[in-house]
Amino acid sequence: MVERQNRWKQLVVGRTLRLVTLAGGACLIVALTAVLWAQATVSDPGVRGINWCTGCANTVGTFQSTLTTQEQESEAPATTQFETSAVVTCNTDGSNVTGCGLGPRFNGNSCSSCHAQPVAGGSSPSGLPSGPGLCNGASCTNPLFQVYQGDGTDAFSNTMPSFETLYGPVLIPRFPYQSDLKTPDGTVHQLFTIAGTSYSGCTIAQPNFTQAQQQNNLVFRQPLPLFGDGYIDFIQNKDILNNLNANLSLKASLGIGGVPSMSGSDGSVQRMGWKAQWRAVLPATLAEEKVEEGISNELLPTEIDQTPGCVINAVPEDPTNYSYLYGDPGSTGKTGMHPWFFLADAERDAIFERFLERPETATQLLGAAGCPGGVQKSCTNGQTDFNNVGCVLCHTTSFTTPPASIPSQGHIVLNLFSDLVLHHMGSCLADNITEGAAAGDMWRTAPLWDVGQRIAFMHDGRTTNILTAIEEHADGWQKGHGGGCTGVGTYQNSEADAVIKNFNNLTVSQQQDLINFLRSL
What is the average per-residue pLDDT within 276-291? Predict the structure, then answer.
């Protein structure tokens, strides 16, 4: 809130001085002082379910209510799998069916290390700026602090990088360039290693994050929530492309373009990840298992770091478990099939994600009580303003799924508020990393369903204030008012500049309504 107020003061005071110089009138000073006070009262009501509506019923983290009996049987074991902490060493006879292969380089030791707000499957867990005790779930702190020096079985000699804070979001580091600062890099540089007392033969070191930060060669991404991703898998390519090509004159008048991230294999529109780098839940989950936990699997079957003394297990460490097709572990008789144990860990994690229910708005659940302030008209008006200023041209309200082989996911209207394509967002939001079709200043339009329950915003978690997050979309506004320009490249202006100008031209009450609408999602 303070951050937002200070920026509004910079903006309005600057306008006041310019106008007073032109008009030279004391009345104008009084009038604009009133504007300054009014603008400063626009506020973020805070996290839904924490700061307001603490009794909100919520569907996030639950499974789809229309799953078949057979599908429902996977719910409990899938949840357990998603929350299971991996250790380094796998059994030499291959009898592990879950939770081994961590490292040699890793960020966390389970899926829920990163996806936990407000429950397993969500966005980055963290405390709020006012301190501990205000977040949902089992822990209010950055969970990486629980695993960086050991996971209960193995001990490591890591130090915590300075950018990971106890009450801040999980931040995943990337280096845009290699050490020569010219050759593109862009890959994740894992925070931790398994080097330490448990594995004395492994002597690899953590990346030199301090040097990278001093060279302006360190950027971050925070975890995205996974709720509803199983439905997004099935949105038809033609619907995404038709939506992109709709309202072209209006979009052009506001400087809005958009580029789909197309798969080079089958021509599908990729729609998962911050830069739309993945097509579907399963390959995204396999990639994240390897990159975040360092566990080799059948998609990426070799270790991240193959330094002698650090390759502990046979690869891949997370394979299809053929020995568990029949009988119980160790059984010599073919007593029946056990398909759950036949699957690799990452495939089970993907089932957890696929079956999660899509988010619902608080007003859908509770009516007026689901809108900050208890006035449902505020959220209704806020959605109208959201549409009128142009936010909806990128944050498309909904798509409808086609018939699906999982019947509960077919013919469903998804109010995800995203067009699922890439947009230029200017130098202030650029990470200087080219990934697939995404240039260094391009990001996929992040879905806004469940945004009311997120703690940190933007790809790098730079703010906990949703008003600041809105303003951060405007590259020009940031450059002129002390915003968080992180990119060092030269890029075109943000496609959101004109939309944010429209937002700033709303009345105070209209801005508040729009914020209330977003926090009700």
Answer: 97
